[in-house]
Fold:
Amino acid sequence: MNLILEKEIPIPTHVTIEAQDLLKKLLLKDPRDRIGCREETHGGVKELKAHPFFRTIDFDAFMLKQVEPPFVPECESESDV
Structure:
């Protein structure tokens, strides 16, 4: 039995309201209803980028690699993943 398709996925209450809302919209069972996956008439990826969770993200600067990462892992070799 594929429970992920039938059961509700619990969302932690300690995350922000915006994050909870985004997760609920990303985890909808029917992919056609998910935020960012709907046809362009519903906004497509523009709808996803406009979600309040991403309000502080400058996507243009992000695409131009002008955004400092919040965390840079320490790597010992080029093969570290």
The chain has one domain: 7-63. Residues 7-63 form one domain. The mean pLDDT is 87.
